[in-house]
Design brief:
Length: about 150
Amino acid sequence: MKVLSRIVIAFLAVLLVATTFATTSQAASYKPKAGDILITSKKVTGAPFLGHAAIVTDDGRVAHISGPGAKPIVRTWASWKKDYPKIRVVRHKDANIAKKAGKYARTKIVPQKASYAIYPTLLSTGTQYCSKLVFQAYYFGNGKKNQF
């Protein structure tokens, strides 16, 4: 039950953040933009949950953590699209904030190589999961905590 409540808390936090963003559906002509949040309903390998989230970095790649036993990584857009062909894109209204979030994910979160674990502490950096990585990129990435 504790795990379920932690998941619900994390999900609600991501929804709260998403209210500041414009949402668009994935189209064949979609071009990744720094800070875009990518959400898919496809289950990640080994994870007990459905769905996955990632963020487009400032260099056009994708930062994410794929599940139990994984560490945060950055991969190419082409490889992401191949594994997750059906996605939902959430784009921040302010391109500068979005770019800073994408850069933060690439330069600060991924290099930490945190272990995958789901805990309700969204601000701790010792462990990561997919939506927490996205949340922290925006929370810490713009230089002003909690300024989405």
